[in-house]
Specification:
By secondary structure, the protein is of the alpha+beta class. It has two domains: about 5-125, OB fold (Dihydrolipoamide Acetyltransferase, E2P); about 155-305 and about 360-470, 2-Layer Sandwich (BirA Bifunctional Protein, domain 2). The chain has helices at about 5-20, 85-95, 140-145, 150-155, 155-180, 220-230, 265-285, 310-315, 325-335, 345-355, 410-425, 435-440, 455-460; strands spanning about 45-55, 60-65, 70-80, 100-110, 115-125, 180-185, 190, 200-205, 210-215, 235-240, 255-260, 290, 295-300, 305, 365, 380, 385, 390-395, 395-405, 450-455. The strands form five sheets. Strands 6-10-11-20-19-18-15-14 form an eight-stranded mixed β-sheet, with helices on both faces. It has a five-stranded mixed beta barrel with strand order 1-2-3-5-4. Helix 9 packs parallel to helix 10 (about 345-355). The chain is elongated. It starts with a helix and ends in a 19-residue tail after the last helix. The model has no long low-confidence stretch (mean pLDDT about 90).
C-alpha cells in the first residue's frame, strides 16, 4: 500500500468515527464573523473559518495555519488554555486539508505573529485526499490545469491572478458604462457564422431541426442591427468560439468584448481604446509599464502608428499590391513561415504581416489594411484599396481590432460575394454571406465605429500564455492522448 493510500484509509476511519459519535463531518452552515485579513484587535473574541493548510503538533501545543478567502492566519491550540475536549478533538480528527470553524481570542505569539488562541473547533468538511506537498506540489503543467482547484490552493498567486482578471473585465465594463454605452446580450447560437474571419463550431438545434453555429464574434452583426434600430452606443462581454488551433495566444472558447459607437469613426475609436487600455492597466497592475516575453511595454508613452503596406515592405521587401502571389509564397518560404498553400494571395499577405508583427513591441495602432481582409470595414476614401481599420499592436501580437463599419448595403453585398469565392477556393476563414444583415443595412445604419478585444490582452498583462489565465481551460480527459 502506497503512502497516499495509507493517508486515505486513516481519514476514512476518522470519518467513520466522527459519524459514530453523532458528529456531522459536512454540516450545512457556520456563522463566521471575521476574515483573516481583517482580524479584530488583540484580545478580541473571533469566529473564523477556512481550510487547515498545515498542522504542527509539538505535544502541549498545536500550531495550524488556516486559509480563508482573504489569506492565512495562525491558529494555536494550547494545553491548559484550550478546553481539553477541543484540544483532543483537533489533535485526533483534524488534518491538513480539512475545513474548520474556530472560536477563540486574538493574541501575539512569542515570535510576534498575530494568531488566534482556540477555545472552540467545529469540523466543516473532512478532506479524504491529501493536499499536494507544499515544496513538491504539482509539477506536471497539464495536471495543474486539469486540477486547477489544487493549483489555486497551493499557489495563492494563481488565485490573485484570477482576482485581477475580474478587475480587468469589470474595469472595461465600468469604463464603457461611464462613457454612456449600454450593455446588451446577443445570440450565442446563429444560423450563419458572421462577424469575423474564423472557422466556427457547428451543432444541431433539435427543437427547430436546424444546423446552427456557435458565434465567432461578440454579436458584431447583431450589435450593428441595434445601430440600425436607433441605439447609439452598445457593448457586450461574453464567450465566443472558434474551431481553430491552440497556442500561447489562441483558444477555442474565450471571453471577448465588442463595442459599437454611432456617429464615430476609426480615429475616434483609437482615442477611446487608448484611454481604456491605460485605465485597465492602471487598475490591474497599478502602473502603465510591464514586461511580456522579451518586450518592455510602456502604455504611457506616445503610441506608434504602423502602416500595413509600408511596414511589410520595410521588413520583407514585398509590396503587397505590386508583388504577385508567387512572389509572396517565395518570400514566405525564404522566411521559413508555414502557410496553407490552398489559400489565395490576400490570406498569404496576412501570414506575411503576422511575421512582421512579431518584431513590434508597441504600443501602437496598425492602419491601412487591404479591403480584401476586412469585408465589414469602410474603404479609405483617399485609397480605396484599403479600409479604415485599426488594430492594437503590443508584445508582437494583435491586442484588439476595430474599424469604421461599412454601412453601404450594396458595397457590403459585393464584398460578401467576394468572400464566398474565397471560401469556395479553400479559405475556411472567409466571411459568411449574411443576407439578413444586408437587408438590415438597406434600412439605413448611421456611421459607426466598432471594436473588439479578447482576454488575450489580460494574458499579456500577466505575461503568461492565455490558457494559463483561463480558470478552467478545456482539457482532454485524463488518460486520452
Amino acid at each position: 500500500m502506497g503512502r497516499e493510500d495509507q493517508i486515505v484509509n486513516e481519514r476514512l476511519k476518522k470519518l467513520k468515527e466522527l459519524r459514530e459519535k453523532g458528529i456531522d463531518p459536512y454540516p450545512n452552515k457556520y456563522e463566521k464573523e471575521v476574515v483573516s485579513k481583517i482580524p479584530k484587535k488583540l484580545g478580541s473574541r473571533v469566529k473564523i473559518a477556512g481550510r487547515v493548510m498545515t498542522k504542527r503538533d509539538i505535544g502541549k501545543i498545536i500550531f495550524a495555519r488556516l486559509r480563508d478567502g482573504t489569506g492565512d492566519i495562525q491558529i494555536v491550540f494550547q494545553k491548559d488554555e484550550t478546553p481539553e475536549d477541543k484540544f483532543e478533538f483537533f489533535k485526533k480528527f483534524i488534518d491538513a486539508g480539512d475545513f474548520v470553524g474556530i472560536g477563540g481570542k486574538t493574541f501575539k505569539t512569542k515570535t510576534g505573529e498575530f494568531s488566534v488562541l482556540a477555545d472552540d473547533v467545529k469540523i466543516l468538511s473532512k478532506s479524504i485526499l491529501p493536499l499536494p506537498e507544499k515544496w513538491h506540489g504539482i509539477k506536471d503543467e497539464e495536471e495543474k490545469l486539469r486540477k486547477r482547484y489544487l493549483d489555486i490552493i497551493m499557489n495563492p498567486e494563481v488565485k490573485e491572478m484570477f482576482l485581477k482578471k475580474s478587475i480587468f473585465w469589470n474595469t472595461i465594463r465600468d469604463f464603457l458604462l461611464k462613457k454612456g454605452f449600454t450593455e446588451v446580450e446577443t445570440p450565442t447560437l446563429e444560423t450563419s457564422a458572421g462577424g469575423a474571419a474564423a472557422t466556427p463550431f457547428k451543432t444541431h438545434h433539435n427543437a427547430l431541426d436546424l444546423d446552427v453555429y456557435l458565434r465567432i464574434s461578440m454579436g458584431e452583426l447583431w450589435q450593428k442591427k441595434l445601430m440600425v434600430a436607433g441605439f447609439e452606443k452598445t457593448f457586450e462581454i461574453g464567450r465566443q468560439f472558434r474551431n481553430e488551433g491552440m497556442d500561447a495566444e489562441h483558444l477555442q472558447d474565450y471571453t471577448q468584448m465588442e463595442f459599437y459607437w454611432a456617429y464615430a469613426n476609426y480615429q475616434d475609436g483609437m482615442k477611446l481604446v487608448e484611454e481604456m487600455y491605460k485605465k485597465v492597466a492602471k487598475e490591474v497592475l497599478g502602473n502603465l509599464k510591464f514586461e511580456c516575453k522579451e518586450y518592455q511595454i510602456d502604455l504611457g508613452k506616445k503610441w506608434e502608428i504602423y502602416d500595413y503596406e509600408k511596414l511589410i515592405e520595410e521588413k520583407t521587401g514585398i509590396n503587397i499590391y505590386k508583388n504577385s502571389e508567387k512572389d509572396i509564397k517565395k518570400k514566405l518560404d525564404q522566411l521559413k513561415v508555414d502557410c496553407d498553400p490552398r489559400v489565395g494571395k490576400w490570406r498569404l499577405v496576412d501570414v506575411l504581416w503576422k511575421y512582421c508583427r512579431k518584431q513590434l513591441a508597441g504600443p501602437g495602432f496598425l492602419v491601412g489594411q487591404p479591403v480584401e481582409l476586412t469585408p465589414l470595414a469602410k474603404k479609405n476614401p483617399e485609397d480605396k484599396r484599403k479600409v479604415e481599420q485599426f488594430q492594437v499592436i503590443m508584445a508582437g501580437s494583435e491586442m484588439g481590432n476595430g474599424y469604421s463599419e461599412l454601412n453601404d448595403p450594396l458595397d457590403q453585398e459585393e464584398r460578401f460575394k467576394e468572400q464566398r469565392k474565397m471560401k469556395e477556393s479553400g479559405d475556411a476563414e472567409a466571411h459568411e454571406h449574411d443576407e439578413s444583415f444586408v437587408e438590415a443595412l438597406k434600412y439605413g445604419m448611421p456611421p459607426v465605429c466598432g471594436f473588439g478585444v479578447s482576454e488575450r490582452l489580460f494574458s499579456v498583462l500577466m505575461n503568461r500564455p492565455v490558457r494559463e489565465t483561463v480558470i478552467f481551460p478545456l482539457m482532454r480527459p485524463e488518460g486520452k492522448n
